[in-house]
């Protein structure tokens, strides 16, 4: 499933690989995928109005994308072993472009969802494939710098995405968002066709179909349960049954992975304490980050009468700060480790999140932009250092599995976190006839209380982080 040390050595000593164009093609594909995901953040209220759907329904356009990513990431470990780098990347970009086209022409919500699923199936391959290739083509002493460059470039997409989206949907129909991403995907496909080389070795692992089915039902059941709670209530059969199916499926899935010689997802990585702790911290900060990026635009446009462009502009400083800080926090990590970076970052995230628990119809644009920027500064201090600390504890043979597990957990936590916070928001709305707009905004405030509590728990857990060296086989 993973990449052996021999393969890594072989890749490092292969002179014909031109790293610069290879990196450019991979990052361009990832840029398109992330830009596509962030473009929808400020466009959701417009899509809700155009297709006559609720916030609980509309957030599925974001949630399904992250969930399919979460399902595809562990499968990609199998695909990398089965197919060549070139054919896998071209297939992923073709899927992504096809899904983008479906979204652009979709006449209703159902077909728009189909397009998002096809998009995500391609995007879910691109990100872990790129990360795996980076670990193959760069020697150990250069991986930190390479991933820092990746973080800086990729952060540019969420930095411009919401603002660009906001301006566009104020001027044009929301479909233009997909027409902008489509040519980027097509051009990257064409360039990759001519210059992309194979850098990973095919190991032809076996695919366990039952594992794929179980993981899909497991993660999908949990997510569906969380998402429908806002509409049906936590005690309804529509919520309880999917969550029970999800928990049961995941339990059987985990038991099966522990028995398989070539598991789809290697759960033995959780035997390593710092890896487990760092993954949990990454999930917590991702819930706070993704949930906020979804709820704030809904609040600003539907409850505060800001334009989509203005809500995107509000998110811009925070995204830029996160992009700038990602490589810097990586360098600081090399000197001081993850513990105090994580404690500091999570403290900043928690305090700034609680500043969002007293929003009203009079809250200023400047206040929201500054507080969100401070939140994202904190997120940048936590995200990359904790991930690196966890992966560093694993023996070399488990690093690909650790990367896959970390990415999977982060994507699924983002999906469930978005669903949970939107559900909390809709369930805590007070009667508008009695309380007016402040009654509706009350739901937003409660959702940020939940996000703040989650990141607050993370502060306590961060004290248990410590420096580690790769474990013995």
UniProtKB/TrEMBL annotation:
Record domain Major facilitator superfamily (MFS) profile: where: 22-470
Record flagged with keyword S-adenosyl-L-methionine: no
Bilayer disposition of the protein: Multi-pass membrane protein
Transmembrane segments: 20-40, 60-81, 88-111, 117-138, 145-164, 176-195, 207-227, 233-254, 274-300, 306-328, 340-359, 365-391, 412-429, 441-465
Localization (cell): Cell membrane
Keywords, sorted A to Z: Cell membrane, Membrane, Transmembrane, Transmembrane helix, Transport
Superkingdom, natural source: Bacteria
Transport is among the record's keywords: yes
InterPro entries referenced in this protein's UniProt entry, alphabetically: EmrB-like (IPR004638), MFS (IPR011701), MFS_dom (IPR020846), MFS_trans_sf (IPR036259)
SUPFAM superfamilies: MFS general substrate transporter (SSF103473)
Gene3D superfamilies from the UniProt entry: MFS general substrate transporter like domains (1.20.1250.20), Multidrug resistance protein D (1.20.1720.10)
Alphabetical list of CDD domains matching this protein: MFS_LmrB_MDR_like (cd17503)
PANTHER family per UniProt: MAJOR FACILITATOR SUPERFAMILY (MFS) PROFILE DOMAIN-CONTAINING PROTEIN (PTHR42718:SF24), MAJOR FACILITATOR SUPERFAMILY MULTIDRUG TRANSPORTER MFSC (PTHR42718)
Protein name in UniProt: DHA2 family efflux MFS transporter permease subunit
UniProt organism field: Bacillus seohaeanensis
Lineage, highest ranks first: Bacteria, Bacillati, Bacillota, Bacilli, Bacillales
